[in-house]
Amino acid sequence: MKDNLIKKIYEQGYPDEKTAPLVSLEEFFEGNDDEGSIGCNLMDHPGIYWPFSERVYILSNANPEEIEEWVGILGPDEIEEGYMFGNPPIAPELYPNHKVFGVWWD
């Protein structure tokens, strides 16, 4: 699973493309056993994960306050609207009234 994840990341032109690679929730978390892959800045870590990400995107029709509530346990530094480095070529089309929220850790 990890090899497939890494392959998908590089197939998107990483690290040369201006946009960041995009993978699904399942691709990132299934089979992941690396505690440092997300939330590595937390003293009380919520569990085990893998390849590191400093940003998670949530596509939702929720409001920013709801997003903050959902991810609060991970202690993000910032939650902002939109893709940080522009729309990734494989980004899914948004449903009506949905937005992209970027959850970021420094």
Characterization of the model:
By secondary structure, the protein is an alpha+beta fold. Helices cover 22% and strands 15% of the residues. It contains three helices and three strands, in the order ααβαββ. It has a three-stranded antiparallel β-sheet, covered by helices on one side. The longest helix has 10 residues, at 2-11. The mean pLDDT is 86.
Secondary structure elements and their pairing?
Elements: H1 2-11, H2 25-29, E1 55-60, H3 64-71, E2 78-81, E3 99-104
Antiparallel strand pairs: 1-3, 2-3
Strand order of the largest sheet: 1-3-2
Number of helices: 3
Backbone CA Rg: 14 Å
Strand content: 15-25%
Largest sheet report: 3 strands, antiparallel
What gross morphology would you assign?
Answer: globular
The structural class is alpha+beta
What number is the mean pLDDT?
86
Oligomer: single chain
H/E element sequence = HHEHEE
| Poorly predicted tracts of residues | none
Gap from first CA to last CA: 26 Å
Report the count of strand segments: 3
Helix content: 10-25%
Task: Please give a quick description of this structure.
The chain has a 3-stranded antiparallel β-sheet with strand order 1-3-2, covered by helices on one side. The chain has helices spanning 2-11, 25-29, 64-71; strands at residues 55-60, 78-81, 99-104. By secondary structure, it is α+β, with helices and mostly antiparallel strands.
